[in-house]
Design brief:
mainly alpha; 21 helices; elongated
Length: 560
């Protein structure tokens, strides 16, 4: 560790290594300079003098005041002198810290925070220098004691932290924490604070977490008990009081906006000056005070938001209630009932206006309009959540199969859907573009997935497909193939096997007819050539034989 150069300080001369008492006085003078005036720097002469004095203290041949067997062993004498130096350092640190405690009593609130931070910084910086100066003690006596399993023996830097925790921290931490909480409350009330002070306090609390079982490891026990616990308690108390007052004076929507802001502020607070360990419990505390305690009020507002299509506010409510356990279950139930009601109303409306002449397109479009509206709501307001999608599906399945049109027969929906599909796939003067047709077929499949009696749909669809194929009335072979593929994907191979065979048979028939017409064209061409060459005394018999072979099948063919 490098020592800073400064004006040489007045240090007593290095004492004789045999004079243990004088050696300690010399060390104490150097330690005091480091503790109290480190910012002025350390001159190299003093630095090396203290380092040497530590070595001399620990290796002195004469242990003053020791008699008996201890004096008969240099090793044992050095061992006892190392212990004496260690205990002298403890006594010195305790006295130094007691003086700091006494001085802290003249400070309160932010002044106390400033004092604590200043002394903590000075103390820990000094501890690093002293740890280095006592390196010989660390290497030999301290290491040996720890290896032998001695409790409450630490390297010199850790000893500084242990003494700070025992002497100063236990007496001052409560007042320091009160000052921190007052500062945080000021910030929550909109005042600007010096948040770096809180961060430094947090760091000091974390640094004091020492694992008594393994001093090479650190824990967050001190931080959690002395900082995190009171911080969370104060947070819950603050937001419980504020939210009750705000709800009493403002609308639910305004409260949700306020809660969003508060939650975001607390997340930012963790980033700015709190320890990351507090993030989860702080979030839980805020969620309880700001959301869970007002969840009934929020849920009661949900129906109003649905009825008035307040999508942004529903998204806000979803985001808030998703933060608490089972917060969204009542919303999903209300959403499902609302969609069902909307679907039934839409069908009843078209039934009333159309009467017995209800057009399949009008019916299917009514179903699709309700589904599309609430599917978009699920995506934009409810984050496409699977449970809300399930609620939408349950409602759609109900109003597709059990509505005003289906009250007399449960087969009405599959029948009307099949008829609408037939209208789309037949040739007509109002045929739609290929791209639009594909999109419409996809929409039809949306309704189809909610149809409970899919066999009824298959019965009507196969009958209408046969009619289109026999009368060559399909608008597009590609569209027919696409629809069959969609049905196959939805219901499997067995469901569409008959439909595919019908379509394939017609394709084979078309191919045979095409080949036959091609053959006829080639025969007609050959007859023309045969007639021409006959004028010159030649005659081709093969084409005439081919024509005779096909004549029974075609009335347009002539025998020669």
């Amino acid at each position: 560790m490098a020592a800073r150069m400064a004006t040489p300080s007045q240090m007593p001369p290095v004492p004789n290594r045999e004079d243990i008492g004088a050696t300690w006085q010399y060390l104490q003078t150097g330690i005091t300079r480091i503790m109290n005036e480190l910012e002025r720097g350390i001159d190299m002469q003093m630095y090396m003098g203290v380092y040497t004095a530590v070595h001399n203290f620990c290796t002195s041949q004469k242990a003053v005041g020791l008699t008996g067997p201890a004096m008969q062993s240099n090793h044992r004498g050095a061992h006892l002198l190392g212990e004496e130096l260690y205990n002298n350092l403890i006594t010195y640190l305790q006295k130094h810290l007691e003086d700091l405690v006494e001085a802290s009593k003249s400070h309160t609130d932010e002044a106390l925070l400033a004092y604590y931070i200043k002394e903590w910084s000075r103390y820990t910086n000094a501890a690093k220098y002293i740890h280095h100066l006592f390196r010989y003690l660390n290497r030999h006596w301290v290491k040996r004691e720890i290896d032998e399993g001695k409790k409450n023996v630490y390297d010199v830097y850790t000893l500084h932290l242990v003494q700070w925790r025992k002497v100063l921290f236990e007496q001052v931490s409560g007042k320091v924490m009160d000052a921190v909480l007052k500062l945080v409350e000021k910030q929550r009330n909109g005042e600007t604070i010096e948040h770096n002070q809180i961060k430094q306090v947090v760091d000091s609390f974390v640094s004091l977490g020492l694992d008594e079982a393994d001093m090479s490891r650190s824990t967050l026990d001190v931080y959690r008990y002395h900082f995190e616990r009171p911080f969370l308690e104060a947070t819950a108390e603050f937001y419980t009081a504020e939210s009750k007052q705000f709800v009493a004076e403002n609308s639910v929507v305004e409260y949700m906006k306020k809660a969003e802001v508060r939650l975001a502020e607390e997340e930012e607070r963790v980033v700015m000056y709190l320890h990351q360990d507090i993030a989860v419990p702080l979030k839980k505390t805020c969620n309880t005070a700001l959301i869970a305690e007002h969840s009934t009020l929020l849920r009661e507002e949900f129906q109003f938001l649905l009825d008035n299509e307040r999508e942004e506010d529903m998204a806000r409510m979803y985001n808030l209630l998703s933060r608490i356990p089972d917060g969204l279950d009542p919303l999903r139930t209300k959403f499902e009932k609302h969609v069902l009601k909307a679907g039934l109303a839409a069908v009843q409306k078209v039934q009333s206006s159309e009467g017995d002449k209800l057009e399949p397109k009008v019916y299917v479009d009514a179903l699709l309009e309700v589904h599309s509206q609430y599917q978009l709501l699920v995506k934009q307001a409810f984050n496409d959540e699977p449970d809300f999608t399930r609620s939408l599906d349950n409602a759609c399945r109900e109003f597709v199969n059990r509505n005003e049109v289906c009250k007399d027969t449960s087969t009405k929906s599959p029948e009307l859907l099949a008829k609408y599909t037939d209208v789309l796939l037949r040739k007509s003067s109002t045929s739609i573009e290929e791209g639009d047709l594909e999109r419409t077929l996809t929409q039809i499949m949306t309704v189809f997935k909610y149809i409970e009696d899919k066999d009824v749909f298959q019965k009507y669809y196969s009958r209408m497909l046969a009619r289109r194929l026999v009368h060559s009335n399909s608008s597009s072979d590609d569209a027919e193939t696409s629809m069959i593929s969609k049905l196959k994907e939805a219901c499997g191979f067995e469901y569409t096997n008959k439909l595919q065979r019908m379509f394939q048979d017609m394709q084979i028939s078309k191919d045979l007819n095409k080949d036959f017409r091609g053959h006829l064209e080639s025969v007609d061409s050959a007859k023309t050539v045969d007639s021409t060459f006959s004028n010159f005394g030649y005659r081709f018999l093969a084409p005439t034989s081919a024509i005779n072979a096909f004549s029974p099948a075609c009335g347009n063919c002539h025998r020669n």
